[in-house]
Amino acid sequence: xxxxxxxxxxxxxxxxxxxxxxxxxxxxxxxxxxxxxxxxxxxxxxxxxxxxxxxxxxxxxxxxxxxxxxxxxxxxxxxxxxxxxxxxxxxxxxxxxxxxxxxxxxxxxxxxxxxxxxxxxxxxxxxxxxxxxxxxxxxxxxxxxxxxxxxxxxxxxxxxxxxxxxxxxxxxxxxxxxxxxxxxxxxxxxxxxxxxxxxxxxxxxxxxxxxxxxxxxxxxxxxxxxxxxxxxxxxxxxxxxxxxxxxxxxxxxxxxx
Length: 257
Ligand code: NI
Hints:
42% of the residues lie in helices and 14% in strands. By secondary structure, the chain is of the alpha/beta class.
């Protein structure tokens, strides 16, 4: 299993980060990708990925929820510089995107930063990790106009949308990141997956958040993706081993080539 999205640098893992990483290795997790969210997160991400080189892979980016009018230009200057400086070492630009869930007062700034990061990804030929919450229409519109300019590789992380939205994302050549939400009671995502080939899915936790059932509410860890794998095996009528093999090969194709 490859965890394409875990915030292992964050405070939630501060007390026992080394043990957590060791546990994932023992449980058969092959690799983790650690996404950036703001300027402050850069150093910690690069540190943990340096320490676990070849196992933890860094991504750097500017998360829409960290875009604030008073300092976003300065933060972006720092993040862009770090992305360029570490462009050989990072496996993606992320996480980036739009989030209108809590705050819609600064849509313009979020869109500007999203756009700049997409431009940079195309310039540096890096994949992107896209975050979209309550902003599907704008996210799809921006992605489509971006892809009209030049090829773009990437994943829509923590995907939980409709068939219609999934189809549009697949048409753009992007992957879907699937995690714990798939195992939640009342989650309708399994219906959406009817139109999604497994060849376009990568696994993720979004840890420390969104631990799958039966660990819902606990701190998430990459090894718990096995519950997502089991659910995918049921949905696609194949074995868990096949799910692991296909999703790992997808992740390698997207991030490690
Ligand atoms: Ni995340």
